[in-house]
Amino acid sequence: MRHLSVPKKETAYWREELLRLDFLEKSHGIHDLNDFRGIPLNDKCPPDFSTQYEIIHLEPIVSGPKKWVERLPEDLYQLHKDDWPSSFDQIGEIIVIKLSEVIAKHAKIIGQTLLKHFSNIRLVCEDKGVKGDYRVRDLEVIAFRNSNFSFDTTVRENGKTMQLDPSSVYYSPRLATERQKLANLVKKFSKKLGKKLSICDPYAGIGPNIVNAYDKMYVDQILANDLNPKAIPYLKRNLPEFSEIYCADARRLATSLSKKYDMIFVNLPHDSISHLSSLCPYLAHSQETMIVGWALSDSGVQDLTEQINGQFKQDAIINLRINEVKSYSPSQSIYSFTIQLNLSP
């Protein structure tokens, strides 16, 4: 099959140019020829098509299925055509997928199909929901790429890296965009106060909020805490520059620490609102401070506003913003909230 051989750095340009001319064979892949790339040409490209680059003959690279379900046995796919999950979570090299009762009996086939489709995945687990006081995912391994598998993995998010074990600590990749917004908010608040911030994350997990928010230009002090003892080793790995890491009840810990933090993160969606007043001892009382959190609700913004206002003394709240982030269930949504406070006596 004919391919246009172009310098590696010009691949994107020539692909777009051939696409514009309708000469690109879109169903085939591009060859890696070291310093050059071989871009496939279709039958519409004339034999006398001339550029400064050579047309060569190579075996075509046939693209595989674009969706993992297209790799399932055809009879099985058709049998449950409307039941296959439309999404899953990828946590580092691990895929976590929820399966309905209808297709759970085909879990092993599903796992092997996902491994075949995603070459960078080494472990596939069925998500059976959260369990225990720490709300950790109940994961059942349904496929793995080698016999010595481990749940330990590295996540790359917004240019930062974190280590974790999703079978022993909770982590959701679906809030990555929220954490990017949080990082931007930290920079903005630091500039407003005219100083580097002291930040407290009393429900830190393995530290995704702090890791995303930390920038030495805007943050100089961090407290990270989590009640789950299995999260602490990962917190220490993910925040190696900071030693103020605790494993305690966040509300009790607040009473033993001085009022020195400019900003608090509250990522405890089922209980965030009811914990707010108990977290105020973390905050500095001589200036404006901020609480950023996420809450699960079935009653909407107005009800959340009333609940949050009820957690603080009159006139303590300078500004309150609440936004719906995403649906959690047919009747509930996750909301983000930002509370600007002045707790001066």
Give a structural overview.
The chain has 345 residues and is an alpha/beta fold. Helix content is 25%, strand content 31%. It has ten helices and 19 strands. It has helices spanning 11-21, 74-79, 101-104, 107-117, 176-193, 208-213, 232-238, 250-255, 272-279, 300-309, and strands at 2-7, 28-29, 31-33, 36-40, 55-57, 61-62, 89-91, 94-97, 123-131, 136-144, 153-157, 160-164, 197-201, 219-225, 245-246, 263-267, 288-297, 317-327, 333-342. The strands form five sheets. The chain has a seven-stranded mixed β-sheet with strand order 15-14-13-16-17-19-18, with helices on both faces. Strand 3 and strand 4 (36-40) form a beta hairpin. The model has no long low-confidence stretch (mean pLDDT 92).
Write the layout of secondary structure elements.
Layout: E1 2-7, H1 11-21, E2 28-29, E3 31-33, E4 36-40, E5 55-57, E6 61-62, H2 74-79, E7 89-91, E8 94-97, H3 101-104, H4 107-117, E9 123-131, E10 136-144, E11 153-157, E12 160-164, H5 176-193, E13 197-201, H6 208-213, E14 219-225, H7 232-238, E15 245-246, H8 250-255, E16 263-267, H9 272-279, E17 288-297, H10 300-309, E18 317-327, E19 333-342
Parallel strand pairs: 8-9, 13-14, 13-16, 14-15, 16-17
Antiparallel strand pairs: 1-4, 1-5, 2-6, 3-4, 7-8, 9-10, 11-12, 17-19, 18-19
